[in-house]
Amino acid sequence: MKGKPQPLRRALKVIPDNWRISAGFCRLAIFVAVALVARSAAGSGFRFNRDTLAFQNATVLKYKNGVPFLRARSTNDDPANKYTRRCFVMTRTVMQFRKFARFDPRSAPLDDNQLAARIRAVSRHFAWQKPLPENERIVFPGYANLRQMSKARVEVFKENIGSGFITYFRPSNGRMFFQHSRKYQDRTHANLGDALSRGDLFVGYLSTYPKLSINHAVLIYGREKGRSGDELEHYLVYDPNHAEAPRHLTWSPREGAFSYQKDIDFIGGFVRVYQAYGNLLQ
Description:
With 282 residues, the chain is an alpha+beta fold. It has two domains: 1-42; 48-276, no CATH class.
C-alpha cells in the first residue's frame, strides 16, 4: 500500500507549475506594454515623411526676441513667405487625409482639375469624424502618399485646401483670452494623452496671450521617449512652418504647463495649448 505524498514532495511539484503560469503572465504583460508603447509612439502608424505636406506656411508677422513686427512684402526672389495664415488649414488637411483618403501609386495621376476636386472632397469631411474604412476613402492615384503628392502638385494643393483668413474668425479662438488656468491645461494634457492612446491625432492651437510671441497651430502625432530621469513628457509635432522635420513639445507635470521648441520666430518655452478640430465647437 502506497503512502500519502509528503508535504515537501507536494510543494516541489507545485513550484514548477506556478513558475510556468507566472512566466506566462509576465510574457503577456510585457507584450501588451510594448504594444501599447509602440502604438502611442507611432500615433497609429503616422509617419512624418509620409503623412505630412511637403510645402510650408509662413507667419504673417516676424518676431525678434519674442516681439512681433510686420514682414516685408514678398518679392520674386523671396517666395518663402508668400503662403501665409495657413497653419490651421494645413494641420486640418493632414488630419483629413489621414482619415479619409488613400493612395494608389500603380494608377495614372489625375489632371489638375480632377485632383483639385478630390482634394476639396477630402476637405469637406469634418476633421473630428471617425476615419473611413479603406473601401470608402477618396482615392488619389499616381502617388504613394501625401508627402509625395503634395511635393509634386504644390500649387493644386495650395489653391484647394482652403483660405487661411477665415481661421481668424473661429469662435473657439476666443479661449486664448480667458482660459489661462492650470486646470484647463491639465485637462488639455489629459485629452492629448487620450487621443494619442487611441491612435488619433491632436491639433493644438498655441498661444501666449496677452503676449504675442506665438499664435500658431500644430499637429501632435506621437509621444517621444525622454532621457532617463527626465520628468518631462515629450511629444512629436508636425509644424506647418517646418516641412523639413518634426518639432518638439513638452509637458511638465510639476508646473502643469507645455513648452514648445525655439525657432527663428518663436523664442521657445512656455505656451498654452488649446485643442482644435476635436469636435464641432473647436
